[in-house]
Amino acid sequence: MARPEDPPAAEITPDAFFDADIRLGRIVEAEPFPEARKPAFKLAIDFGPGVGVKKSSAQITEHYTLESLKGRGVLAVVNFPPRQIGPVRSEVLVLGVTDADGHVLLLSADGDAPLGARVA
Q1: Nearest in space to 119 (alpha carbons), one of 73, 83, 81, 82
Q2: Which of 12, 65, 93, 114 is the most buried (most CB within 10 A)?
Q3: Domains recognised in the chain with CATH numbers
Q4: Do the beta carbons of residue 96 and residue 75 sit within 8 Å?
Q5: Nearest to residue 74, comparing CAs of 119, 30, 113, 109?
Q6: Exposed / middle / buried, residue 85 (Cβ in 10 Å: 0-12, 13-18, 19+)
Q7: Which runs of E-coded beta strand occur in 5-71?
Q8: 90 close to 80: Cβ distance less than 8 angstroms
Q9: pLDDT of the chain along its 120 residues, tens only?
């Protein structure tokens, strides 16, 4: 994981960046994930009709409660292959940045973009 003081990663082309399909979704369910090695929540995220509802796990317990997550907009990569994390099949990668203590803050979009809107 890159730290703020690290130099930029190696250059990539715009095409390489846009191969990652990053979409806006809304968290519709958030549950505890006690089986996780590090504190995490299980999420169900609605990306609208094109992608549908996808599951993920996220290590976001320091800044968020289960109650605060439901209805929250998030950005996630929807075209990575699914990954098995304990008993959870994580289908998308929820995006965030880390604070000074290394805890994740979720990325979202301002305004009123529709679910499934792609990062441009």
Answers
A1: 73
A2: 93
A3: 20-106 (2.40.50.140)
A4: no
A5: 109
A6: middle
A7: 22-32, 41-46, 53-58
A8: no
A9: 678 889 999 999 999 999 999 999 999 999 999 999 999 999 999 999 999 999 999 999 999 999 999 999 999 999 999 999 999 999 999 999 999 999 999 999 999 999 999 998
